Amino acid sequence: MASRSGRYLWVVAAGLVGLLVAAMVFLAGPGAGNEPDTEFRQLTQGWSDSVREQMHHLSFGSRMLPYDWLLHLERADGSGSVREPAFLAQLGFIPTQPSALNPDSLPVGFSRAVDGTGTAWAGFNCAACHTGAIRYRGEQVLIEGGPALIDFSRFEDAVIASLAATLADPARLERLALALEQDHPESLRLALQQRLDYLHQRRRMNQSATAYGHGRLDAFGQIFNTVAVELLNRPGNAHPADAPVSYPFLWGAPYLDLVQWNGSAPNQAPGPLIQNVTTALAVFGTANLSEPGALGGYTSSVDIPNLGTLQRHYNQLRAPGWPEDLLGALDPDKLTAGRTLYRDNCLACHALSDHQQPNQPAKVTLVPRTEVGTDPAMATNFLQARAQTGLLAGRKKLVLAGPAFGSEASTIELVVHAALGATLQHPLDALGASLEDFVRVYGATPSQAPDQYKARPLAGIWATAPFLHNGSVPTLYHLLLPPEQRPASFHVGSRELDPVKVGYVTEAGPASSHFDTRLPANSNQGHVYGTDLDESARWALVEYLKSL
Questions:
Q1: Is 513 within 8 Å of 211 (Cβ atoms)?
Q2: What's the pLDDT at 22?
Q3: What total of structural domains would you count in the chain?
Q4: What is the largest CA-CA distance in the chain?
């Protein structure tokens, strides 16, 4: 039997070990030992490693937070930092390893840019919303240009909560000031409050009764509010951004005659540059519309040369092929039957692209909304969006040409005006970018009232779940079922692929979001093409879709 002193020494030793372990955990930082896997297999999609790094992190002018704030802000619940890889992975961001453009190992799509005052800003670029990833049997595959599964609203909420908690807790504020090596916490407090007010305003103006969840955003709604409310400083112009849509896949997009889910944007140069300028403005970009320059241009944070570089690389992007060594060989008999079924049920709207020459001009098919029967919210919101022009009243709609604005206009006209103005502020850069990313496309004039949805070639469709423009159908198999047989609800957020039905697994997980098709903007009705097939034909068509 051990003596009392012996037992005492064991207790002390155990206590010291416990303290040592606790200290090691503390020094290792939050999330240590639970870091997400950064090893991803690359498919052959036309990009080199150097191009991939540019596409993942090159800034186009987005400014959400001062860069050092993002590196050091604590989450509101005290469980770790905002930038912690494991936390961001739960929100659907794809983790990465450090690189020249990303020395702090921020996820795919995070960018860093320095403004004219020398302040470094953290923001986002195209890749945040347009990079996908799948997981199968423990292996991860990156899908360049694929739809992301990020829950962007939850990230915004986490940043807002973090800023508010820091302002409410003197100890947190002091820790942040020390981390930033700032000797004047009061100046930091003022800057934090200003940024918090700005982010609160964005969340209020982009309110939505239906949560977006993973993989969706009301891009048009937020672009409209950025220009009509934020840049014009007219809160009364706000409209709910309540028509969330899936992030579209981008391979082949530069070669389409029309783009956007409702086919509302022409794709001839300089169309792509103007569209990308609107995106940069909406994703925490800045612009001053009150003081036009010599050519009617507006100063902004938009990086025109970088936009040209990003677009040029997207011109080179190819659709991902089905990786048979990982997901299984395709059945030749089903492929033969499926090819005929595709011709009879799909080809009238979804043209086939040549695998030998994939990046060739292509025409989309515009299907009236009442015919396709899918959720109307996105198309309807676009058509109905109007706003007071405010300080733009009397200016030419196309900046240098066209009729003048009256007191009210369609919101898309205000957006085009702002994007043209930001582009004209840098005419030589804009010309260079348009020439750099130029591709030959079919000329097309979009409808003035685009009450429609766009059908495009389906190359790589296997890697783009969930389906329909609002992400309301989880797999290709379910899309070929009559609407009443499609799942009424499912979970989104897992990257685990179901290679049979072709889509992500839909079971609830610790980081998933619930998709309820009965909520506004979430309808899974419509697109009944091919839904009358028998089960054998349905599986044959799914097999053929894998091969595209």
A1: yes
A2: 33
A3: 4
A4: 98
pLDDT value, residue 7: 32
Report the alpha-carbon distance of residue 436 to residue 535 in Å, rounded. 48
pLDDT tops 80 at residue 371: yes
Give me the domain span that covers residue 21. Answer: 1-30
With beta carbons less than 8 A apart as the criterion, state whether 173 and 167 touch.
yes
Query: Residue written as tokens 């890697």?
Result: 463
Q: Do 381 and 439 share a domain, yes or no?
A: yes
Residue 287 neighbours by CB under 8 Å, 6+ apart = 231, 281, 298, 299, 300, 301, 302, 418, 421, 422
Domain boundary among 414, 436, 458: 458
State the DSSP code for 403: P
pLDDT in tens, 130-175: 999 999 999 999 999 999 999 999 999 999 999 999 999 999 999 9
Mean pLDDT (the chain) is 92
Element (H, E) at 189: helix 185-205
Task: Provide the residue type at 9 as one letter.
Answer: L
Query: What is the distance between the alpha carbons of residues 223 and 91, in angstroms, rounded to a whole number?
Result: 22
Beta-strand ranges (E) seen in 120-170 are 120-124, 131-136, 139-144
- State pTM to two decimals: 0.91
**Site of tokens 């290679």:** 499
The residue type found at 103 is P
DSSP H stretches of helix in 320-410: 324-327, 332-345, 369-372, 377-384
Let me know whether 434 and 532 are in one domain.
no
CA distances from 201 to 161, 207, 415, 491 (A): 14, 10, 19, 30
438 with 511, same domain: the answer is: no
Pairing relationship of beta strands 110-114 and 120-124 according to DSSP bridges: antiparallel
- Whether the CB-CB separation of 121 and 64 falls below 8 Å is answered with yes
DSSP letter, residue 226? I
**535 has a pLDDT exceeding 80:** yes
